[in-house]
Fold this protein.
Amino acid sequence: MAEDDIHIKVGDWISDDKGRSGLITQINLGLSRMDPAGESGPEVEEFEIRKEVFTWGSILFGKDNWAYFDQITEVFTGEKAEEKEKEREWLYD
């Protein structure tokens, strides 16, 4: 995996370039330029986003948020993901 590549899976905590954050609830792969968000593509549990090869697709996260793969700025997994989600719930719920 190259330095710029990002590995994501359902349950990871992410933030995006719009300042939103939350747990990933769904990952969709885009299979063509006509479907860059992956609305017609397969849903997967985890995926490696390879920056040197543009990958179409999107994630659903947090409360009704979605983002293209290239909008993801941070990813936290495991216990760190759980901590981030608890912080978010404490601040906003």
About this structure: Helices lie at 78-92. The chain has one domain: 6-92.
